[in-house]
Write a structure and sequence with these properties.
- This protein is of the alpha+beta class and about 290 residues long.
- About 20% of the residues lie in helices and about 25% in strands.
- The protein is built from six helices and 20 strands.
- Strands 1, 2, 3, 4, 5, 8, 18 and 20 form an eight-stranded mixed β-sheet that branches.
- The longest helix has 15 residues, at about 220-235.
- It is globular.
């Protein structure tokens, strides 16, 4: 590979990239190689990075256009950088400085939008540690590997079917506890294929989860929710999973159309602080998403 070293994980996804300084502009060769590596391995970790907000955003733009979260939350972003959302359990003056329970269910980021993002990035600024053990890991599961392993009968059954995605999963009975403002509650439901072609890599992946999928058009409620649960549980098998234990200054990017992720909430405020910067990358500069 150009300009850096790649160390593959033992899982079906994941690679650690070393020997690269993300604060410096990438060469054309490095940019193309990382783009291809993301398509191949779905989750990339760059340890030991020292980035300010502008450099972090500049790196993310190597993979597509960077957009603020939906809806924008100025109180969760560093001043002047609405593209960055803090993911954190830290409070200032009794108020959250970021999204405190992000990743509380298995999901693909913003699957409830008409054009889900290509990738998500997290940059670890503070990591909780207890008795020498790092807390707050992020778990990933390959929806591409899961689709490839589906029984033929299941693959045939879901061909042509869609799932309806809603930010709260309000009819799925998941018990999700996220409290957002009225703008987010007003987002319309969106349907995506249960088996979706990744628009960037071309890989086929399951695109369904119990946290945000609420119906399958053409199926009754009980049958639809049972199918959603069956496929979601299939994706979460250990054979398709990767666990990332965070270190301060890790940058991790993942292919949002290829994997799902889940946070580990084994840390506590105020003694065990966690702070990450999140960025969302769309597929191309000419792709837009809208809030109706």
């Amino acid at each position: 590979m150009a300009d850096f070293d790649v160390h593959l994980t033992d899982a079906v996804i994941g690679a650690e990239v070393t020997g690269i300084d993300l604060a410096r502009p990438l060469t054309g060769a490095a940019r193309a190689a990382l783009d291809a590596l993301l398509d191949e391995r779905s989750v990339l970790c760059f340890p030991g990075q020292r980035l300010d907000e502008a450099a972090y955003i500049a790196f993310a733009r190597n993979f597509g256009s960077v957009r603020p979260a939906i809806p924008p939350r100025p109180d969760w972003s560093p001043d002047g950088f609405p593209e960055i959302m803090r993911v954190s359990n830290i409070k200032h003056d009794g108020r959250d400085i970021g999204h405190g329970d992000a990743g509380s269910v298995w999901h693909s980021d913003m699957s409830f939008t008409a054009v889900p993002p290509r990738a998500t990035l997290l940059y670890a600024r503070e990591v909780p540690v207890r008795d020498g053990v790092t807390l707050g890991a992020t778990n990933f599961a390959s929806a591409v590997a899961a689709h490839a392993a589906l029984p033929a009968a299941t693959r045939a059954r879901i061909t042509g079917l869609e799932a309806v995605h809603n930010v709260y999963g309000r009819r799925a009975g998941t018990g999700r506890s996220v409290n957002f403002d009225a703008e987010r509650k007003a987002l319309p439901d969106v349907a995506h294929p249960l088996a979706r072609v990744n628009p960037h890599s071309g890989a086929m992946a399951l695109f369904v989860n119990t946290g945000e999928c609420i119906a399958v058009p053409g199926l009754g409620d009980d049958e639809a929710l049972a199918l959603i649960a069956e496929l979601a549980e299939f994706i979460q098998q250990d054979a398709f999973r990767l666990r990332h234990d965070w270190r301060v200054d890790d940058v991790v990017i993942w292919d949002n159309g290829a994997v799902q992720h889940l946070a580990t909430f084994d840390y506590h405020w105020p003694a065990e602080r966690r702070l990450l910067w999140r960025l969302t990358v769309m597929g191309a500069d000419d792709i837009e998403y809208e809030i109706e």
